[in-house]
């Protein structure tokens, strides 16, 4: 009866407004739309409530929406923990227990993975310290959710075993290969500063690890700044000498990152992900030989070199501290100083507070 009465009143009001509309067109049109739409919504709400009064706060309905989630994970083969997590399927099983699924997507590097996160096709991933800085500067809505204390021994500036270069100071005027905007780009800047040189004192050769390896072995560059496991592979294959690693120069940390809206909408799922990541991280820390054997066919790097890399890195899935945030801010400020970063950013603005 209530619905029928409202419908009758709507019809009457519309007829009345239509007659006035011919005299005052523009003003009546707005009123007609607003009143008609408003009353129609009332009828719709009344009809919905009349037929399904329990749907508004139904626990079953909410559980189905949460349970049907597809979690999109971005990973790189050389990123040990997420690669191993995918292989073990423990996260897939944990998400499936509540009715959800996991989709894994491989990326060649951190920046394209974060671009996919910006597009909404990746919810969670892991990169080195530099990609999230450039992503934040580009307006990517990401959040730091944990860090991995990978360690300064896991990256270095190397030269060929017969090179006359013995120190960082001797890199002046030399061609140095590294990936632009990478963690080793930051290492190069800090190493030069420690030797009293400027970034402009060298000739940067911006190359991917594969291209840099070819240039290094071919003698087309004088030095190469690279991270593990490519560092260990080059040392094992060529006998390359280290002129400095990142000790006292750069923290060389990795970061677990998530799409901001995913963190806000599914904090419980994010915690499940971090729990499973932490379990695999602890397994990897205790089993470097097994990790090396697992990665060998995927990376095409000998297990012996991979085991060296695994043993000299640090492990952990840790909440960001003020010290870690401050150091990451220093990395960002350095990239802005050498004009690789287009604007200043504040790292602390995108740090998740839930992982405490």
From TrEMBL:
Domain of life: Bacteria
InterPro entries cross-referenced by the UniProt entry: ABC_SsuA_sub-bd, Solute-binding_3/MltF_N, SsuA/THI5
SUPFAM superfamilies for the chain: Periplasmic binding protein-like II
Compartment annotation: Periplasm
Chief localisation class: periplasm
Keyword tags: Signal, Transport
Pfam families: NMT1 (PF09084)
Domain Solute-binding protein family 3/N-terminal residues, every copy: 70-287
Family the entry assigns: Belongs to the bacterial solute-binding protein SsuA/TauA family.
Name of the protein described by the UniProt record: Aliphatic sulfonate ABC transporter substrate-binding protein
Species this chain originates from: Brasilonema bromeliae SPC951
């Amino acid at each position: 009866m209530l619905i029928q009465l409202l419908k009758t009143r709507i019809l009457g009001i519309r007829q009345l407004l239509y007659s006035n509309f011919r005299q005052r067109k523009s003003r009546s049109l707005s009123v007609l739309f607003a009143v008609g739409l408003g009353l129609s919504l009332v009828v719709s709400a009344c009809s919905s409530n009349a037929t399904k009064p329990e749907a508004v706060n139904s626990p079953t309905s909410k559980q189905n929406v949460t349970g049907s989630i597809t979690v999109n994970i971005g990973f790189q083969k050389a990123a040990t923990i997420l690669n191993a997590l995918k292989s073990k399927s423990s996260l897939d099983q944990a998400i499936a227990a509540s009715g959800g699924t996991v989709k894994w997507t491989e990326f060649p590097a951190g920046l394209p993975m974060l671009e996919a996160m910006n597009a909404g096709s990746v919810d969670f991933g892991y990169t080195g310290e530099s990609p999230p800085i450039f992503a934040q500067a580009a307006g990517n809505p990401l959040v730091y959710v944990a860090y991995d204390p990978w360690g300064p021994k896991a990256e270095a500036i190397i030269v060929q075993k017969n090179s006359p270069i013995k120190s960082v100071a001797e890199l002046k005027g030399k061609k140095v290969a590294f990936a632009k905007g990478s963690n080793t780009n930051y290492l190069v800047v800090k190493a030069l500063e420690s030797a009293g040189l400027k970034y402009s004192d060298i000739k940067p050769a911006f190359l991917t690890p594969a291209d840099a390896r070819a240039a290094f072995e071919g003698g087309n560059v004088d030095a190469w700044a690279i991270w593990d496991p490519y560092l260990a592979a080059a040392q094992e294959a060529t006998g390359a000498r280290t002129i400095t690693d990142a000790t006292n120069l750069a923290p060389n940390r990795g970061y677990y990152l998530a799409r901001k809206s995913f963190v806000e909408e599914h904090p419980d799922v994010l915690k499940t992900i971090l729990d499973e990541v932490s379990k695999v991280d602890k397994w990897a820390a205790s089993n470097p030989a097994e990790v090396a054997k697992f990665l060998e066919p995927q990376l095409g790097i000998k297990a012996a070199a991979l085991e060296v890399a695994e043993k000299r890195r640090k492990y952990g899935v840790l909440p960001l501290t003020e010290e870690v945030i401050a150091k990451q801010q220093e990395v960002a400020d350095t990239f802005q100083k050498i004009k690789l970063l287009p604007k200043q950013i504040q790292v602390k603005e995108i740090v998740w507070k839930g992982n405490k």
